[in-house]
Input
Amino acid sequence: MTVYSNKEQLLASLSAREASYNPAVKLQYGPMEKTYHTALKKDSYPYVHYTYLSVVYALDLLDSGLSDYAQRAAEIAAVIVQLQDRRKDSPTYGIWSYYYEEHLDQMEAPDWNFADFIGKKLVLMLKHHGDRLSEGLRQGLSEAIGRACQAIVKRDVGPSYTNIAAMGAFVTLVGGEVIGLETFVQYGRNRLRRLYDYTVRLGTFVEFNSPCYTPITMEELHHIHEETKDPASVMLTEKLLFIAWRMAAERYHPRTKEWAGPHSRSYSPMLESYPDTRALRCPEELLPYFSTEEERYFRCTVFEEEETGYQSFATTYMQEAYCLGSFSKDMMWNQRRNLIAYVDNHGKAAYVQLRFLKDGRDFSSAVFTGVQDKSDIVFGINMALDFGDWHPVLDPINGVFKAEDLRIRIEIGGYIEGVDCDSGNKLDYDAAVVIGRQTVRVKQLSALSDKGVPRMEITRSEQEGTLCIDYIIYDGPRNRFDFHEWNQAAWVFLFTLSERAEELEAGSEYKDGSLYAWCEKQGRRMGITIPVKPDCIGQLFQNNEVSFMTEEV
Output
């Protein structure tokens, strides 16, 4: 998401993208980025033409107001209309592929979100610049918007998919107003209302605290607020925008300029940009959060299932020099930041992140459980039998896979100049890492695994710019793993972050098929209980338990 504060920034961006425009194809092109959905390989297609980046470029060309750019924008828009699936009997009717080089039928898993992502740009194009386009192109855009709306209605994403719930509401509500189809308008109103009711009931977005998708949600809510004719929808967006901004503002860490965790979805541990407080209507009463370095401590529910009683919550602790956040239960997907800290390292930010790696890539079948008391976290990992590899859904392995390396990693990155790690210390931790004036301490409390106790190893990668505390479960010849056959696969740890070592007690015990791990400090005890035998993820989410007691046990 790029929001330009002035026309000069927009024109500079357009000039920078000039070299990436292919006038023969009439699309933007660039290096291919492998995603979950495409079947293309970088070796065969090092460069590709992008549908979404092209429609973004076309709208920016029109937004510049320069007549010289209008013709190019129209040419791109005409190609985008043609690339949409217009086959009424097709299961992907109304959506687009990622690349010009790959038809929808060739993709591993067509991305239905592209009805929303491309549809919203076409709505803005027709609404704001239709008078600058030919009658034929206006008709083509109107029909393309209608097809995108049909795809969105057919899919009918629920309110838990936050950014797409908001984006689809914009495309159908405002798109319906633009093309004059009341059925889409009514659907968009109802979809926005569902998102509002669900979010207010929960108290936050299910797509919680996401550095990449919360800004998109803000942008879509802002667009609805600015573009719709419906007063009731305008009112709902104002309330939802306040919830989004409060979530983001409360978790902004001024010293490191980072977005405190935990993060439901994030593509990079380090923050690349923060939502524009002016362009996206940040309430004035929340602005002090962006400069005040007071201690903050939050715990909120982020997901609950009434039928099963399953509940997950997020905890964030912040003080001047660092912030630390964790979820209570979640999968170890590469977009999740279940345990993440940002630490001031002499004026620059370092991050500390928990990962579970299979052959060097995040492994989503690993399940995280944790409980946090300010600067201390007790966490554990056990294994799911019905989940995925790198992606939880799109590449299922269901507990059976081949690997040559499995490890639990505490990864330190960002600015790590002067950061060093000692193995063990007088307080009997496995490792201690000094970052600035703070120290990360990690201790494995117990490991019950058919592969035995992991060995700990400290690794530093100059190429990746990371220092890692690794607990190696397996490394050796490529081997077949079948967690259905394992009796034990559970690991529990203590993680602390503070300027000075604090007195605390921690331990673990095995009872009735589960590991119980606990930590007690200043009369407060917290703990987790996790089954050691792999199970289906729904059962693990129900049976993995966290406890926090304020009185001495």
Remarks:
- The mean pLDDT is 94.
- The chain has ten helices and 25 strands.
